Structures are given as structure tokens and as C-alpha cells.
Amino acid sequence: MTDLADIKATARKAAFARRAAAHAARPPGEAGLLSSVLAGYRGVPLSAYMAIRSEIDPLPAMQEAAAHGPVCVPVIEAAGLPLKFSRWTPGSALREGPFGAMIPAVDDFIEPEILIVPLVAFDRQGGRLGYGGGFYDRTLELLRGRRPTLAIGFAYAAQEDAGLPLEPTDQPLDMVVTETEVIEFAPRT
């Protein structure tokens, strides 16, 4: 019998291939819908990410949001810990962080209320398959324990997968924004 870790690894491999193909064929303006969604949350502290490899790039939406309120990016401090979030502004000095993601050169930690979450795959129930480190699951659980925290997955439509292998510790998304649509999920109880 195959264990869940093997099943997730197989699902990730297939999802990475779909994401790479979507990234290679990406249309201009892929962050347009994300910008539209974020316009409804002007001024709310927001975390996004600096895209690596074939991730869909939220940078245009981040630049627009930064004109209206604080924007930060995730900082990985160590395996097994939740993420911290350092303030980012357009044109700010950056340095390479773990896994090659760029982070602010000078840490100025803030706590976001909205997280734009990178992912490998998503489903239409708010499920998310990440990279396997559990960073966003730990972080969302911590932040949601303090206050309402909105988790918005940002992905190519091709990253959708109806059969995600999920665990009880996987934190659900509230919404997924792709280059073609906005998918909202009913609140979980």
C-alpha cells in the first residue's frame, strides 16, 4: 500500500508539469484578476510572494497594492516553523532567501491579514497542494487563531486537480484566482 507522502509526491510531479506548461504559454496580464480582487481590500496588510521557477507572478498586483497599504513577502526562518513576513515596497533592495525566493534585504516584520499563496495544485473545494514543507499550513493555522485571515491561492487554471490528496492539517483556501477566473469557496465551519 502506498502512503500519503508517496501519493502527494506523485500528485506534485504531475502538477509541476502542468504548471510548467501553463507558464511557458502564459498570456500577458496574468495578474489582472488578482489586482481586481485586491482592489476590494485596499489598505489591508497583504502578503504575496516573489515568484520562483514556473509560479504565476503576482508582482504587478503587489506593486498596485503597495500604493494603498502595506505589502510583505514570506520569510522562511527554519524548517518546521511558521513563516514570518517582511515589508516589501516596489524597488526595495532584495536578497536571496531559502529556495531561491527573493526577500527584503532588511527585515521589517509585519503580520498580514490577507495571504496570496503560491501552490502546486488546487481543487474547487479550497484544497491546496503546496511544496510539502507545511509552511503555509502552519502559518495560516497560527494567523487564523488570532484573527480572520484570508488565504487566496494564485495559480494558473491548468493547476486545478479534482483529486488532491489532502490531510486534516492542510489549511483551506478562501479563494483561488487564476489568469481566467476567480473561484470563491463557502466558509468552512
From TrEMBL:
Q: Which InterPro entries match?
A: FTHF_cligase, FTHF_cligase-like_sf, NagB/RpiA_transferase-like
What Gene Ontology terms for biological process does this UniProt record contain? folic acid-containing compound biosynthetic process; tetrahydrofolate interconversion
Recorded GO molecular functions are: 5-formyltetrahydrofolate cyclo-ligase activity; ATP binding; metal ion binding
Note whether Nucleotide-binding occurs among the keywords: yes
Q: Which cofactor does it need?
A: Mg(2+)
* Source organism, top-level taxon: Bacteria
> Which EC number(s) does the record attach to this protein?
6.3.3.2
Reactions catalysed, semicolon-separated, are: (6S)-5-formyl-5,6,7,8-tetrahydrofolate + ATP = (6R)-5,10-methenyltetrahydrofolate + ADP + phosphate
Q: Which family does it belong to?
A: Belongs to the 5-formyltetrahydrofolate cyclo-ligase family.
Which UniProt key words apply to this protein?
Answer: ATP-binding, Ligase, Magnesium, Metal-binding, Nucleotide-binding
Q: What is the name of this protein?
A: 5-formyltetrahydrofolate cyclo-ligase
Specify the taxonomic lineage.
Answer: Bacteria, Pseudomonadati, Pseudomonadota, Alphaproteobacteria, Rhodobacterales
